[in-house]
Amino acid sequence: MTRGMAGTVCRGCNASGRLTPGGAGAAATARARRGRVAPGPDRHIDDDGATARGPLRGSACTVVLTGPAVPVVRARNLPRHVGIIMDGNGRWAQLRGLARPAGHRKGSDAVRRTVRAARRLGVPALTLYAFSEQNWTRPIDEVSALMALLVEFLQSERDEILDNGIRLRAIGRIERLPPDVRAVLDPLVADSASNTRMILTLALSYGGREEIADAARKLAERVAEGSLAPRDIDEHLLGGLVPSSMPGDLDLLVRTGGELRISNFLLWAAAYAELHFTDRLWPEFGAEDLYVAIEAYQARDRRFGRVSSSDVASPGEATHGCNGPTAPTDGPA
Predict the structure, then answer these.
(1) Does 62 score more than 60 pLDDT?
(2) Please, which pLDDT band fits residue 287 given cuts at 50, 70 and 90?
């Protein structure tokens, strides 16, 4: 996979860093003149630091950070729905001799970084595993600290969510959440319901098996009352009752913390998801880690049970990447 190195000038730029006709526009040109980014026709990457702010929405531009090697992400081939299992807060704290709630607080900073990075890249939907149904069994002090952090996060991020056109959703057995959480969560969900730039879903008191069981129960009730025949039940009908599938099937599932399991997360929506595991503990996860995961996703051939496109395509015939047809002369992925 191509990576940006110091001094890179992408296709679509000349040596002075100005865009050629049909390039990404004045914003990218201005950033290029500051010597921090190089625009071009195929890819886009955003930095969570002081440079390369904002996505080039609707363009096919490449923005490559100069300096150390960084991942390169194709703007037109982004996963439409990314889910993240945010693991490692407790271990991060323990490694530093701190109480586990300190790790959760640091982890909330990683949530902010990741949401911002996903939004700037133009990822349409992001689902975060914030609190599982099984997490209620943790020590009450830790659960209380998590709920307090959730309230704090929702309060502090309310304006950013609304100002940036983000729709906030919550999935799981929300009725189990404390009243002070619901008092902040419910109004923000309602107030952001018409936003369309990005869907941010928080999985709270959530379990994948529980979600499927709840959907099956609703169908059983309809059968019992005579409004649905058992023969009419199929995966589309059941899937329509699985809240986590509302943004669409999961394309990319990321788990931090080094564990190699999906822990009851988005079991229905993740049927064909690409899996990416990283040893990075969640409090240390940042924009570049998200880029690495998406870069890996874009390098995979998603067949969905079909024969690989590279096995059947004739020379000069279009092949298919992650999200649609890609011309074979398109250049390195």
Answers:
(1) no
(2) very high
Give the pLDDT confidence of 153-205 residue by residue, as tens digits: 999 999 999 999 999 999 999 999 999 999 999 999 999 999 999 999 999 99
Amino acid 97: pLDDT: 97
Domain span at 43: 1-76
| 113 to 19, 46, 47, 143, 285: CA distances (angstroms) | 29, 12, 10, 23, 8
- Mean pLDDT across 283-305: 91
Residue 146 clears pLDDT 90, i.e. is over it: yes
Largest CA distance in the chain: 72
- How many domains does the structure of the chain reveal? 2
- pLDDT digits 0-9 by tens, 220-241: 999 999 999 999 999 999 999 9
**C-alpha to C-alpha distances, 90 to 32, 86, 94, 281, 308, nearest whole angstrom:** 40, 11, 6, 9, 41
Rounded-to-integer distance, Cα 73 and Cα 62, Å: 8
Residues 239 and 201 in one domain: yes
Please give the positions annotated as active site.
87, 135
Burial readout 23-44 (b: 16 or more C-beta within 10 A, e: otherwise): bbeeebbebbeeebbbbbbbbb
| Spatial CB neighbours of 324, under 8 Å, sequence gap ≥ 6 | 77
Going by their DSSP bridges, the two strands 81-85 and 125-132 should be labelled as parallel
Measure the CA–CA gap between 98 and 141, rounded to whole angstroms: 14
215 pLDDT higher than 60? yes
In a domain, 245, yes or no: yes
Backbone CA torsion sign across 22, 125, 128, 161? positive
Residue 312 lies in a domain: no
CA distance 222 to 240: 14
Task: Answer for the pair 64, 4: CB distance below 8 angstroms, yes or no.
Answer: yes
